[in-house]
Amino acid sequence: MDPKGWRLKLNDGHSIPVLGFGTYAPEEVPKSKATEATELAIDAGFRHIDCAHLYNNEKEVGQAIRSKIEDGTVKREDIFYTSKLWVTFLQPQLVQPALERSLKNLQLDYVDLYIIHSPVALKPGEELLPKDEHGKLMFDTVDLCATWEAMEKCKDAGLTKSIGVSNFNRRQLEMILNKPGLKYKPVCNQVECHPYLTQRKLLDFCKSKDIVLVAYSALGTQRLKQWVDQSSPVLLEDPVLCAMAKKYQRTPALIALRYQLQRGVVVLAKSYNEKRIKENVQVFEFQLTSEDVKVLDDLNRNLRYFSAQISEVCEGELEQEVHSISDNHLHFSGPA
């Protein structure tokens, strides 16, 4: 199937391409690589580009999108661009200025989707991870319902076509859905999701509320030491996944991506490698049997790759994408 044509309808009438290109890269990767990789992704057929203020590369990603528009590869309306509101901007008065900053960096008039990156707020300011004199993260108290009202105003102002959330659990979603005077429901919830963390309960709840689940880390993780327990199993080396890849004559990565699509989940594929970028679009060229989908369901072990002690984070610079912060740990996804 043509990847440009496979979309899911959102609850606000817009639609989202089911395969997205993730643009995050560690700090040591030159920012110019984001431009190069995004151009390669668009040439390969990706039309959904996922980025964020946190990634510190929206200028470069925006440059790639504009370049592909200028050379006639795509029109602006062909591209579905997602940005994210970082957790230091959750105070209502900071929401629209944060989006306007992203738009200025991108040099675009609007984004297609703007989502709250995490439900847990940090102290407002320019620091991505503000810390006190003892090296402890400085949290903030925010009414997420008020934050959501500010998100709704961004949609009404035409700065974003759709609005959603990331790393929200069921309770946090219900808080928004049950808000008096709710104007727009979140169209999506982006969370860590893969065969070792299938998020079945959260997926079922989101489907019941007409909210699309978007999977990040669908292929596992880069396994950076400061974020990931090095003893955790490597998803793409799983014997069941590898056997299935051999059966379908595909890579384990393609099996993991295709699994999400057949569950009705929008899936993000992150790679700066040209060969793998092109390969990931092949997810539309085959189909898993329902029996094999069930086999992959059974791999679930509720394993979250992205979890690290705050003390470890505070010892170094931000080198990996932080999604959600709570209690005394960093969590990259709320409990389902």
Briefly summarize what is shown:
Helix content is 33%, strand content 17%. It is an alpha/beta fold. The strands form three sheets. It has an eight-stranded parallel beta barrel, surrounded by four helices.
Can you describe what's shown?
It is a single chain. It contains eleven helices and 13 strands. It is α/β, with parallel strands linked by helices and 336 residues long. The protein has an eight-stranded parallel β-barrel with strand order 3-4-5-6-7-8-9-10, surrounded by four helices. Strand 5 (80-85), helix 3 (92-106) and strand 6 form a beta-alpha-beta unit.
Q: Determine the mean pLDDT.
A: 89
Order of helices and strands: EEEHEHEHEHEHEHEHHEHHEHEE
Low-pLDDT stretches: 308-336
**Major β-sheet profile:** 8 strands, parallel, barrel
Placed side by side, the strands forming the largest sheet appear as: 3-4-5-6-7-8-9-10
Proportion in β-strands: 15-25%
The count of strands amounts to: 13
Q: What overall form do the CA principal axes indicate?
A: globular
Separation of the first and last Cα atoms: 32 Å
> How helical, in percent, are the residues?
25-40%
Q: What is the C-alpha radius of gyration, as a whole number of Å?
A: 19 Å
Structural class: alpha/beta
Domain NADP-dependent oxidoreductase: 19-300
Protein name: NADP-dependent oxidoreductase domain-containing protein
InterPro entries: AKR, AKR1C, Aldo/ket_reductase_CS, NAD(P)_OxRdtase_dom_sf, NADP_OxRdtase_dom
Keywords: Lipid metabolism, NADP, Oxidoreductase, Steroid metabolism
